């Protein structure tokens, strides 16, 4: 297949450069051509520009305290995130729409800044009444309904870190995360609709409670389905609570800049999800600054970030970034092809969306559905387009640029991670030329290099490992406090000795003469399915427990739309029916993690490829899955298995 035809993580680099139109540059929030140099010359003080976008209860003494870890961004400063997202906007724009919600069944709800402020206050008062104190972790297990950002901001108001668990995760996954966070408070809903069918979220929450060792002090239930939900002891109806606290005023609790704002779980190399704790000052400054400089947001804009709020992207670019800047943020509960394949364009037209931020997976799906869908709508309100979560191949990039942006909107391909809190590598739309397929340069103030195994910079065009070489405001507490490196070390570790401090991102990359970074995918055992991250070990450990599975290995495989897919190689115990086992494997992953992590392809094999010492040779499985050159197979104990794997795969594709 020619490279350009190939959709997916390994998109080809193109030589093309696209300049942002002069009309965009003229109005851009950040347009100084030498902004990166200016930040470097004044590092770390340059980051005051991010902090200046916020209101502080008490000013910070130093931009970056601690010469090494523990790092303290905006040391000595205090602020409240909810006050920054709500209260400070009331004087100027209390009647402006803060949050526009579009529901799955075609309903919509509109909250002005005043409305949102009122309901956040009422729910904050309710949480306090239920016993939530400062620093108690409140778990939020909700789909994309207005009550989710309301609960997040209510938690922030009283200094209680929230832990949002993606609604599609299973009862097991919820229980694990509540236990790990020692969380005694839960906000969930009765259920919600997914492709027309109701999902009973409350049942999942009940099952999680049964599984948990910990106590649940209180559970709040949002009514989304409209039926009667019997409430047990310690369970409260959301609407009743808000009504009981009508008109309540809750003074925002001043938090130190390095106090925790929230906690979010992500997948790494180990079988257990990792809790990433983000700070109030550094994170919020990073969120606001990147929304300002990269998304070019301003108060009069309507911004739509299509990610579910259950992931970091939704935290930073649906909730905190846009609201900190006083913009209108749009929330969409549904799927992009329901009721019709023009749903997204219809929503953009009806809400006059200025900035649209989505995943390459979605762009590839739009492309497949055809340009007649966007063409049927007036998309002229759009000023800027963005992508995140996985590499975007040049063909999809160009389609997005031409058919959605009418060739006039810059497209920002933003690289970052749950751990970074906000964007780290991207073009600045008011400054940089774009190179389709490449994320762009490190953002101002960010230290990023592509290095080889010895930690030396690679030659332009050579592949290496992406390393962040300076701390940044959005760094998580877990990293700021660590001595030196952070994480959950994957199978690859470039030497980082050369740096005073550095963080290895677990991403492979190349860099060109102009400093443009092109991402090549994770080098650890993480699968990135449609921009969602799962550990192969996490899925493998579920499969290993399925009755009838003798052995299983999970690797990332190619997928035309989703970029990557979950491939499970399973050897069945004698006499087990493969079709039944396939269903059992899917059910097990759905129960333990959630449907989105279920293997896309299950390959049955009499044996897994193993080294002489009996270790599963993952590299070989990956090569077979990608139909790549197998490389050196002399270490294999059972070379005959390769042919069997190849023919099993041929039968499936
Ligand atoms: C991993 C982080 C950042 C929010 C969404 C995912 C991949 C992210 C890009 C991009 C190529 C990207 C990386 C990264 N990734 N953005 N623009 N180009 N790859 O957050 O779940 O923490 O995943 O997503 O592999 O390490 P996450």
Specify the number of helices.
21
* Inertia-based shape: globular
State the assembly state of the protein chains. Answer: single chain
The biggest beta sheet reads: 7 strands, mixed
Query: Helix share of residues?
Result: 25-40%
Domain AMP-binding enzyme C-terminal: 538-615
Enzyme class: ligase
Biased composition (Basic and acidic residues): 7-18
GO molecular function: acetate-CoA ligase activity; AMP binding; ATP binding
Quick overview:
This protein is of the alpha/beta class. The protein is about 30% helix and about 20% strand. A hairpin with a 2-residue loop joins strand 9 (about 190-195) and strand 10 (about 195-200).
Question: Secondary-structure blueprint of this entry?
Answer:
Layout: H1 22-27, H2 35-41, H3 48-51, E1 62-65, E2 72-75, E3 78-79, H4 81-85, H5 90-93, E4 97-102, E5 108-112, H6 113-129, E6 138-140, H7 147-157, E7 162-164, H8 171-181, E8 185-189, E9 192-194, E10 197-199, H9 201-211, E11 218-222, E12 235-237, H10 238-244, E13 255-256, E14 260-266, E15 274-279, H11 281-293, E16 302-305, H12 312-324, E17 328-332, H13 343-351, E18 355-358, H14 360-369, H15 372-375, E19 384-388, H16 394-404, E20 411-414, E21 448-451, E22 463-468, H17 477-481, E23 503-511, E24 517-522, E25 526-529, E26 532-535, H18 536-544, E27 549-559, E28 563-572, H19 578-592, E29 601-604, H20 618-626, H21 640-652
Parallel strand pairs: 4-17, 6-7, 6-8, 7-14, 8-11, 11-12, 16-17, 16-18, 18-19, 19-20, 28-29
Antiparallel strand pairs: 1-2, 3-13, 4-5, 9-10, 14-15, 21-22, 22-23, 23-24, 25-26, 27-28
The protein binds 5'-O-[(S)-butoxy(hydroxy)phosphoryl]adenosine.
């Amino acid at each position: 297949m020619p490279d350009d035809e190939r959709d997916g993580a390994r998109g080809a680099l193109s030589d093309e450069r696209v300049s942002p139109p002069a009309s965009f540059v003229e109005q851009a929030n950040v347009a100084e051509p030498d902004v990166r140099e200016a930040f470097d010359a004044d590092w770390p003080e340059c980051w005051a520009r991010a902090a200046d976008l916020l209101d502080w209860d008490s000013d910070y003494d130093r931009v970056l305290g601690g010469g090494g870890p523990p790092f303290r961004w905006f040391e000595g400063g205090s602020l409240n995130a909810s006050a920054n997202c709500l209260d400070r906007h009331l004087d100027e724009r209390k009647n402006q729409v803060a949050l526009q919600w579009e529901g799955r069944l075609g309903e919509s709800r509109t909250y002005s800044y005043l409305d949102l402020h009122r309901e956040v206050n009422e729910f904050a008062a309710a949480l306090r009444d239920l016993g939530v104190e400062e620093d108690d972790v409140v778990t939020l297990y909700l789909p994309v309904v207005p009550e989710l950002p309301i609960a997040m901001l209510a938690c922030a108001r009283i200094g209680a870190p929230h832990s949002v668990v993606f609604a599609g995760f299973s009862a097991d996954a919820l229980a694990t995360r509540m236990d790990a966070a020692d969380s005694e408070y839960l906000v969930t809903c009765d259920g919600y609709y997914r492709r027309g069918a109701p999902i009973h979220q409350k049942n999942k929450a009940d099952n999680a409670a049964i599984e948990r060792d910990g106590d649940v002090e209180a559970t709040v239930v949002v009514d989304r389905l409209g039926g009667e939900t019997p409430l047990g002891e310690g369970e409260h109806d959301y609407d009743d609570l808000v009504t009981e606290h009508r008109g309540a005023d809750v003074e925002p609790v001043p938090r130190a800049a390095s106090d925790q704002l929230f906690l979010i779980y992500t997948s790494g190399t180990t079988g257990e999800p990792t809790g990433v704790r983000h700070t109030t000052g550094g994170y919020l400054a990073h969120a606001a600054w990147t929304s300002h400089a990269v998304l070019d947001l301003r108060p009069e804009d309507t911004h739509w970030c299509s990610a579910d709020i259950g992931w970091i992207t939704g935290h930073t670019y649906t909730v905190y970034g846009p609201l900190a800047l006083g913009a209108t943020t749009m929330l969409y509960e549904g799927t992009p092809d329901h009721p019709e394949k023009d749903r997204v364009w219809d929503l953009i037209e009806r809400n006059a969306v200025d900035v649209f931020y989505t995943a390459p997976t979605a762009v590839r799906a739009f492309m497949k559905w055809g340009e007649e869908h966007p063409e049927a709508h007036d998309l002229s309100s759009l000023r800027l387009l963005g992508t995140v979560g996985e590499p975007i191949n040049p063909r999809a990039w160009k389609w997005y640029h031409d058919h959605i942006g009418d060739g006039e909107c810059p497209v920002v391909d933003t690289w970052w991670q749950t751990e970074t809190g906000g964007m780290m590598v991207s073009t600045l739309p008011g400054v940089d030329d774009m190179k389709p397929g490449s994320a762009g340069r490190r953002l101002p103030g960010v230290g990023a290099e592509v290095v080889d195994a010895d930690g030396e910079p690679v030659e332009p065009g050579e592949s290496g490992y992406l390393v962040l070489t300076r701390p940044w405001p959005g760094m998580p507490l877990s990293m700021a406090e660590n001595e030196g490196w952070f994480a959950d070390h994957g199978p690859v570790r470039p030497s980082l000795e050369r740096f005073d401090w550095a963080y290895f991102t677990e991403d492979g990359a190349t860099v060109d003469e102009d400093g443009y970074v092109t991402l090549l995918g994770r080098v650890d055992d993480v699968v990135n399915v449609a921009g969602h991250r799962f550990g192969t070990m996490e899925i493998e450990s579920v499969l290993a427990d399925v009755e009838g599975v003798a052995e299983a290995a999970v690797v990332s495989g190619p997928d035309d739309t989703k970029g990557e897919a979950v491939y499970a190689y399973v050897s069945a115990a004698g006499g087990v029916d493969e079709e039944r086992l396939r269903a059992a494997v899917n059910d097990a992953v759905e129960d333990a993690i959630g449907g989105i992590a279920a293997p896309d392809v299950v390959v049955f094999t009499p044996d897994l490829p193993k080294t002489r010492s009996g270790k599963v040779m993952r590299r070989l499985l990956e090569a077979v899955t990608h139909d790549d050159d197998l490389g050196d197979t002399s270490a294999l104990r059972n070379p005959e298995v390769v042919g069997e794997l190849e023919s099993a795969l041929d039968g499936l594709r």
